[in-house]
UniProtKB/TrEMBL annotation:
This is Histidine kinase. It comes from Desulfolithobacter dissulfuricans. GO terms for biological process: signal transduction. Pfam families: HAMP, Tll0287-like. The chain crosses the membrane at residues 211-233. Keywords: Kinase, Membrane, Transferase, Transmembrane, Transmembrane helix. Residues 235-288 form the HAMP domain. InterPro entries: HAMP_dom (IPR003660), Tll0287-like_dom (IPR021796). GO terms for cellular component: membrane. GO terms for molecular function: kinase activity.
Length: 288
């Protein structure tokens, strides 16, 4: 392999590596942007859900419990879980790829039953009582989501009115949900987690497409630059070196000593040319 081929091969390898790095960096940057956007959406949804939940617990429920008979139970008025779910059901049509779940280990309402991933989240909250939230990326089916989760801990006797001993639970609740699940909670228990899922599947797909396009564009650009560099190397390095190599060989055997080595340049090739010219003159004087 000649010098030109070696130089071009070396530059080609570096160009491909640089193109790959650009594509990977582009994808990672787009991925991080998608996650940050999903996080902002998730925070907004969470803020609204938690604000409505807090308002219910602090303002509405005390009044409702005063107005409703002891053994009566109206889920749409008295259950924080039902109210949060109902509000979300009204809102989710405009949520655009966002899911909300009150994931519970032992729920009254079966749809709230935590799946395997959500059970792990709740167990993490249980093991770390000071932990206030978790977030990250999770795959469900063929979709990828950014999730945010907050624990639901039993902090008041109001929760135990419905989820403590089923024998003392409101009779209306027993008629609606039965006595098999959703009971025997205790103060301080972490029983559930609010989880918001924001789909990032399309954003990641777009990131891959953008990274692929950037890779191809960069590859084309590097190829064009490589051709330009190859042309420059031919004209400014390879041809002068070949010329000086041929002249050095001719001079070494005493041929064409009367022909001047003419390559005026102010770089290393010029230095080499002047050295050969000096050698030519010296040999020419000796041969006279």
């Amino acid at each position: 392999m000649n010098l030109r081929s070696r130089l071009l091969a070396l530059m080609g390898v570096f160009s491909i590596l640089a193109t790959i790095l650009i594509g990977v960096a582009s994808y990672k940057l787009s991925e991080q942007t998608a996650i940050q956007e999903a996080r902002q959406k998730g925070k907004m949804i969470f803020s609204y859900i938690m604000a409505s939940r807090k308002y219910f617990k602090e303002q509405q429920r005390p009044l409702i419990l005063e107005l409703v008979e002891q053994n009566r139970f109206y889920p749409e008025l008295m259950s924080g879980f039902v109210i949060s779910r109902g509000v979300w059901d009204e809102f989710k049509g405009d949520a655009g790829g966002i899911l909300f779940k009150q994931a519970t280990l032992d729920p009254l309402y079966h749809e709230n039953l935590a799946d395997a991933q959500e059970q792990q989240l709740i167990e993490t909250f249980r093991r770390n009582s000071d932990l206030t939230h978790l977030e990250g990326v999770v795959t469900k089916g063929d979709a990828t989501y950014y999730y945010m989760a907050r624990p639901v801990r039993v902090k008041s006797k109001g929760c135990l009115r419905c989820h403590g001993d089923p024998n003392t639970a409101p009779k209306d609740q027993i008629e609606i949900y039965g006595t098999e699940t959703g009971y025997h909670w205790k103060m301080g228990d972490t029983v559930s987690a609010y989880v918001v899922y924001v789909s990032i599947k399309q954003a990641l797909q777009q990131a891959k497409r953008s990274a692929g396009i950037l890779f191809l564009v960069s590859l084309g650009a590097f190829f064009g630059v490589l051709l330009a560099i190859g042309y420059f190397i031919d004209r400014r390095i390879i041809e002068p070196v070949q010329y000086l190599s041929e002249r050095a060989e001719e001079i070494s055997v005493g041929k064409f000593l009367d022909e001047k080595v003419d390559y005026e340049r102010n770089d290393e090739i010029g230095v080499l040319a002047r050295a050969l010219e000096h050698l030519r003159r010296t040999l020419l004087k000796k041969s006279e």
